């Protein structure tokens, strides 16, 4: 009788990582949503989920037409690869000169192969950062992921002053546009105007011309509101 755990392939780790992301709101992930994330056919996703549900130990709880969630073992494995990924992104930016636009694909390749010793050394060398270059929280060494209390920029209104903390998008072209406009984690914005008809938001970086953004952008930028006493020099913990 087999008693040892089955190994986790890079493909399985990718599944677990994406299921974790899709279920952070507390709801099961649908097969179609997972297929879209992975860029493969829904039938292939169903086959893999059925496999993961009877893995040793089971990694997911999959119910046909009801979606999929992670088991405790699956969540642990997902957080481990997420920690690898986000630490690698932080290391590539801080130590090797990569931009935040370049690191996602590189980290995707490396996250499956680094040892736990290398992970610990990277974390120590970087001072145990709390967030990656995109502002995503990094699970700690015990694989505990803090609660993210940032708010979407789309919910901000005129008169508020905010600081960008996180950008929920890895697309290089999108990040390049934000970089050109100075909208990176740590940047402070004044909310100038809001249109209730099309939900466009007008924001301004100090000393720059106002910029109008639609929801396609403002839903992907997450911020913290800063008070007047904090506005002089807030620093985002990395």
Describe the protein's architecture and organization:
This protein is 37% helix and 16% strand. With 238 residues, it is of the alpha+beta class. The strands form 2 sheets. A 6-stranded antiparallel beta sheet has the order 3-8-4-5-6-7. A two-stranded antiparallel ribbon has the order 1-2. β5 (188-194) and β6 form a beta hairpin. α1 packs across α2 (31-38), α2 crosses α3 (42-53) and α4 crosses α5 (103-110).
Q: Rg to the nearest angstrom? A: 20 Å
Report the count of strand segments. Answer: 8
Side by side, the strands of the main sheet go: 3-8-4-5-6-7
Count of helical stretches: 8
Structural class by sheet pairing and helices: alpha+beta
Shape: globular
Task: Please mark out the parts with pLDDT under 50 across 5 or more consecutive residues, or reply none.
Answer: 229-238
Separation of the first and last Cα atoms: 47 Å
The helix fraction, in percent, is: 25-40%
In short:
The chain is 37% helix and 16% strand.
Sequence-ordered SSE layout with sheet pairings:
Layout (H helix, E strand, L loop, with lengths): L9 H13 L8 H8 L3 H12 L6 E4 L3 E4 L1 H25 L6 H8 L5 H10 L25 E2 L8 E7 L4 H9 L7 E7 L6 E5 L5 E3 L1 H4 L2 E5 L13
Antiparallel strand pairs: 1-2, 3-8, 4-5, 4-8, 5-6, 6-7
Helix pairs in contact: 1-2, 1-4, 2-3, 4-5
Structure keywords:
single chain; 238 residues; alpha+beta; six-stranded antiparallel beta sheet; 8 strands; 16% strand; globular; disordered C terminus
């Amino acid at each position: 009788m087999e008693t040892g755990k089955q190994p986790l392939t890079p493909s399985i780790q990718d599944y677990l990582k994406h299921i974790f992301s899709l279920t952070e709101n507390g709801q099961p992930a649908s097969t179609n949503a997972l297929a879209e994330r992975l860029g493969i056919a829904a039938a292939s996703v169903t086959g893999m989920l059925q496999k993961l549900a009877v893995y040793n130990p089971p990694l997911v709880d999959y119910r046909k037409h009801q979606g999929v969630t992670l088991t405790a073992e699956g969540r642990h494995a997902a957080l481990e690869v997420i920690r690898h990924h986000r630490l690698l992104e932080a290391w590539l930016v801080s130590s090797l000169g990569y931009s935040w636009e370049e690191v996602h694909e590189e980290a995707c390749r490396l996250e499956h192969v680094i040892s736990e010793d290398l992970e610990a050394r990277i974390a120590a060398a970087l001072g145990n950062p709390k967030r990656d270059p995109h502002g995503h929280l990094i699970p700690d060494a015990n694989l505990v992921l803090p609660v993210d209390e940032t708010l979407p920029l789309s919910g901000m209104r005129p008169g508020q002053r905010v600081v960008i903390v996180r950008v929920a998008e890895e697309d290089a072209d999108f990040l390049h546009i934000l970089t050109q406009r100075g909208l990176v984690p740590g940047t402070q914005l004044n909310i100038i105007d809001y249109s209730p008809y099309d939900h466009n938001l007008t924001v301004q970086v100090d000393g720059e011309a106002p910029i109008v953004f639609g929801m396609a952008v403002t839903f992907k930028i997450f911020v913290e509101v800063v008070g007047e006493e904090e506005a002089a020099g807030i620093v985002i913990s990395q």
